Amino acid sequence: MVSQADRISKAIAWYEANREEIAAALPLTHQGTTWTPAVLNFQDDAIAKYRDGEIGKKLAEVYVLNSIRRLYRAFERSKKEVKSGE
After folding, report:
1. What is this structure's pTM?
2. d(Cα 68, Cα 18) in Å, to the nearest integer?
3. DSSP code of 61?
4. Which residues on adjacent β-strands are paired with residue 35?
């Protein structure tokens, strides 16, 4: 079974690996939510607070893991839409 800390770490790794591409794709809209460039500052801050121990695993699940999951879905959907429009 994958631990909560491992899921958070994996989400952070994906976000950091794709941050520049995400920034280029913003704004993103998916399921009624629009992500603007401000989301990058929010996400970077939440990740830094988690790494510095300012927020625990439960809050990191909300502010890091769940946030990145939603952003991932929007980002992947936008990539599919761009690809199908080519």
Report:
1. 0.89
2. 11
3. I
4. 28
